[in-house]
Amino acid sequence: MKLVKGILVGVLFGSLLTLSAAAQSSPQPPAKDPLSAWLRRAYTMGRNDITRAAEKMPEEYYGLRPGPQMEVRTFGQLVGHLANFNYLWCSDAKGEKNPGQENDFEKLTAKSDLIKALSSALSYCDSVYSALTDASAMDIMPVITESGRKAQALRISRLIQNHVHNNEHYGNMVTYLRMKSIVPPSSEPPPPR
């Protein structure tokens, strides 16, 4: 619980600094629910990069590993892993049964199936992040830990965990893309205005 409180304090402090800087440079009033608004924006940027990375990688490289080690996931397994955990943590935050728990999306191999699974998982998460308010972020939710134990966590802790996990694995996806000389989405030039 100390770690969760530490993360929340860090996120809140960073959000408040951002809001303070924005308030000094802009006459706009601060956003309603600044903590959840920040997390929603951060999640959306990451989810868009993940989706675009999965789409950019040619299907012939979905079986690519960065080395011969069998414990290192293929690119396709990374996409499936992201689908699995977006369902898991967003269903925890929503307080309902995991709609993807009957599937292990890491076992899929076809690019189209993996993109469909990822898209469905991220769409499910979109509804959770969209409904989040600063007040609902502090709700205590029953969760199942990775070791299978029952526990409790703040709603926002599961959503922050999901966002951080997505970014961590987007970083892995970038390595796979670069190995095949594909520019990752976050390195592409911005579209013309």
Written overview of the protein:
The protein has a single domain (32-186), classed as dinb family like domain (Four Helix Bundle (Hemerythrin (Met), subunit A), Up-down Bundle). It contains six helices and two strands. The protein has helices at residues 2-25, 34-56, 75-94, 111-131, 134-137, 155-179, and strands at 140-144, 150-154. The chain has a two-stranded antiparallel ribbon with strand order 1-2.
CATH architecture type: Up-down Bundle
Task: Give the CATH H-level superfamily.
Answer: dinb family like domain
The level-1 CATH class: Mainly Alpha
CATH topology: Four Helix Bundle (Hemerythrin (Met), subunit A)
Order of helices and strands: HHHHHEEH
Number of strands: 2
Strand composition percent? 5-15%
Structural class: mainly alpha
The low-confidence parts are: none
Shape: globular
Q: What is the radius of gyration?
A: 18 Å
Q: What separation lies between the terminal Cα atoms?
A: 45 Å
In DSSP terms (H or I, runs of 4 or more residues), the helix count works out at 6
List key phrases describing it:
mainly alpha, two-stranded antiparallel sheet, 193 residues, 6 helices, Four Helix Bundle (Hemerythrin (Met), subunit A), single chain, 61% helix
Summarize the structure.
By secondary structure, this protein is mainly alpha-helical.
Structural topology:
Elements: H1 2-25, H2 34-56, H3 75-94, H4 111-131, H5 134-137, E1 140-144, E2 150-154, H6 155-179
